[in-house]
Amino acid sequence: MANGVEHGANKMALTAMKLLLGVVFLGWLMIWGMLPTHTFRERWLPMLLSKTKTTYFGRLGTNVLIFTFPILFIAVVGCVYLHIVQKSGRNKSSSGALKAWRRPLLIKQPLGIVSGTELAFCLMFIAFLVWFFSCYLSNALANFEGEVGEKESDGLWLAKLEIAALLLGLLGNLCFAFLFFPVTRASSLLPLVGLTSECSIKYHVWLGHIVMLVFTAHGVCYIIVWAATNRLSEMLSWARVGVSYVAGEIALLSGLLMWATTFSRIRRRMFELFFYSHQLYILFLIFYLLHVGISFFCLVLPGVYLFMVDRFLRFLQSRNKVRLVSARLLPSETVELNFSKDPSLHYNPLSILFINVPSISSLQWHPFTVSSNSNLESDRLSIVIKKEGSWTEKLCHKVSSSSLDRLEVSVEGPYGPNAMAFLRYDSIVMVSGGSGITPFMSIIRELIFRSTTDSPTPSVLLICAFKTSADLTMLDLLLPVSSTVADLSRLRLRIEAFVTRESVPPNEPNKLIRTAWFNSDPSDLPLAPVLGRDSWLWLGAIISSSFVAFLVLVGIVTRYYLYPIENGTNGFFSSSWKSLLNLLLICICIVVTTTAAVLWNKKISTMKAKIQNTDALTDRELESVPHQFIVGATTVHFGERPDFKKMLSESEGSNIGVMASGPSSLRHAVASICSSGPGKRLHFESISFSW
């Protein structure tokens, strides 16, 4: 009875929070929508300025109130919402009434696989941008023509072009305000709408292209105006008060350098060039701030602020070296790394882990899907890596070396979905190509765990394509390396494996999997949640406390430092120095509050680690997996390619989840089948960082 009452109270609280967050977000969007209107600029904005025009904040306070505060409020309340969801065990996402909107509608480059929901939001966002710019432009030109009249005809088009250039900058601010949301991994905003950082990368890419197109047009228009009016010297001006053109040019140049390396051909062939040039975002942000000033920067501050919190959390986590216990070496040039894990660290299937190996590269971080399951393997976290590039080749060579007794590794994550969406289906069809099978290992292990607890589980059909028979050894990694799971009879699993480049089975059996064990250093720590078990509450506390501290510091500095200068003999304070001072205060508040939270949780985690022995992994454990189950469930086809259309059409069930992972051609082929008429009962999901 008590559990039922508590469940009902949680449900009511979650519903109220959803409603509140939706209202606040819509209000924030409405403010952006009203920004170019005459009513807002002539009536509402002066009223808001009069309310906040005090000794302490002024125009900065107005922009913080209407542009920054609402999103940070949503982020903090969202953390509380996700904490309640996590504690109540509501891991199964609702199916919803708009299944048709999630079906793929566009399956072509350059956008890749786009669902109906994504396409609808893209069209609405583009329409919003067009309306925003056209409304701003029409109002500005009407005021301009009313002032000029018919007195001047020469140079009128240049004046209009200059107005358009200014408004393009404002339009770029609107796009820029959304740019950092998709790449903020430890954020409550993405899970609130059912997204992960992995599937949101493409939104960051789309927004990045739009931002750079608009900002480039903004800069080019100004250069044309300056050249036509013999004012090119303004390109070198750095005004003490107002807009700094030099800062804007440096920001645009650094943005163009980043943009040039983001196109697929350059990014795929020269990934290191793309990776290192993308670090110019720091330069871009600083000079963008110096260009527009701190008041206008508040328009884009919410996304930047949350990204800064996330980035510093990742920095603190990456300072620790994690304990690498063992590695399983497969004959298919694949390696499974097994890390020691704190039992308090829980994650859902399809989570990803970013790893860094300083002995290979101290700057490069690479994401890999977590193949283990926190329910079955409480003291271990595993990832599978296949040799497919220079970095992975060096890693595989190091791990396979007999002289290596310890490998220094840093990690960020794991990051994953907040709910197990695959549980809402009656049956699941998982399609993989090559190393694309790794995301499905954690799903199968989760279903193994649920089958041992008598929970309802969907049936699974795994269709996997490999180049050679040596790659078939990856199927041995589907089951956990623990002997605690002896009964797999309740798991409804069927595997159809295709070896495309060999027409007959090999005469000689494949080489066995080899296990390499590593020593640990006293400084190596088990993988643990960087903010402890209640990570969502701690994240909300960091965001709220750091922002309040920033407001307090801004008030103090303005009252006792900036205000006396601006009202003294000098009369003004440099806009650039004021912007840098505010940025410094933001960084100080984030660093202090985040460091305090992380150190407190690290202290608690260290105390628990001394009590628990997390190295209880033996060679016998790794060799006691019931591989007979996998062999009995697998049918191998040599010299064939899977007929996806036939196999998907023959799948049983009225509610079938189809997940595809691997090369883009494979994912596009499966998506095309699911989007066709016969695929109405097929619900597609693509699992990949590329699109």
TrEMBL record:
Catalytic activity of the protein: 2 a Fe(II)-siderophore + NAD(+) + H(+) = 2 a Fe(III)-siderophore + NADH
Q: Does the keyword Zinc apply?
A: no
User: Which protein family is named in the record?
Assistant: Belongs to the ferric reductase (FRE) family.
What are the boundaries of the signal sequence?
none
Give the bilayer topology. Multi-pass membrane protein
- EC number, as in UniProt: 1.16.1.7
FAD-binding FR-type domain: residues covered: 317-421
Molecular function (Gene Ontology), one example: metal ion binding
Gene Ontology terms, cellular component aspect?
Answer: plasma membrane
Q: What is this protein called?
A: ferric-chelate reductase (NADH)
Which InterPro entries does the UniProt record give? FAD-bd_8, FAD-bd_FR_type, Fe3_Rdtase_TM_dom, Fe_red_NAD-bd_6, FNR_nucleotide-bd, RBOH/FRE
Location of the protein in the cell: Membrane
- Give the highest taxon in the source lineage: Eukaryota
Membrane-crossing residues?
A: 12-35, 56-84, 118-142, 163-183, 203-226, 238-260, 280-309, 536-561, 581-600
Alphabetical UniProt keywords: Ion transport, Iron, Membrane, Metal-binding, Oxidoreductase, Transmembrane, Transmembrane helix, Transport
Q: Which PANTHER family has this protein been placed in?
A: FERRIC REDUCTION OXIDASE 2, NADPH OXIDASE
Biological processes, Gene Ontology terms = monoatomic ion transport
**Keyword Iron attributed:** yes
Coiled-coil residues: none
Query: Pfam families recorded for this chain?
Result: FAD_binding_8 (PF08022), Ferric_reduct (PF01794), NAD_binding_6 (PF08030)
